[in-house]
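This section describes the prediction task in plain terms. A model, or a person checking by hand, is given the sequence of a single protein chain and must write out its three-dimensional structure as a string of tokens. No templates, partner chains or ligands are provided. The sample shown here is typical of the held-out split.
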Amino acid sequence: MNHSSDNIMRDIKIFYSLTKKDLKLELRSLSTILITIVFAALIVVLFNIAFPFGVAQKSEIISIIIWVVFLFSSLIVSSGMIELDTKDNSLELILMYGIKSEIYFLSKSLSVFIILSVVQLTIFSLFYVLFQLSFQNPIIILVAILTNIGISSITVILGILSIRNNLNQNILSILVIPFTLPYLLGAVEVTNQLTQSGNINYVLNSIYALVAFDLIFLITGAILIGVYFKLEK
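The expected answer:
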């Protein structure tokens, strides 16, 4: 029993250390987060200039644009953070020291989630300023968090697999779309409803679906990455 609890505490400490390492490296250079924020801001501003239609139409289409911009921002963040580990061979060192690949996956997902939360806040702020987008219900914060968790885990899974196999970044963009489609559909529906009516009863099923997808991708992602690195050896 003591041995088991010691292993759990060791895994938690390793998880914390890996996450701290990622965030320190990112905050030291700020390269990934700045590129992502500039990319997101540029896309939002371009859409603001290009919109020729009325407020009612904007409300429907903006719900889609928010999450499409967020999806491609997540690709920049995840690939940048994983590629950093590949360049300095830190991933090989991590696995060499017997650190579980599942712990690596979960810590990387948390790091991407935290960085994406900053990007997410920027995106919503830009939409609020440029499109006068207001949310009638604070439940949108929960939806943003749930969507962020899922997309972070998916992009990390595909990012690890693509970079380890030297796949092109464009291929990663294509692969990620079918996996993130459930999140995009759910998030768009919830955002559209909350910007118009603010009634949570219409979106409960979508929220439950987002929670279910989060659990599926986090659990299967950890298992898949663990099996992949074992086979790679």
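For orientation: The first helix runs from residue 2 to 29.
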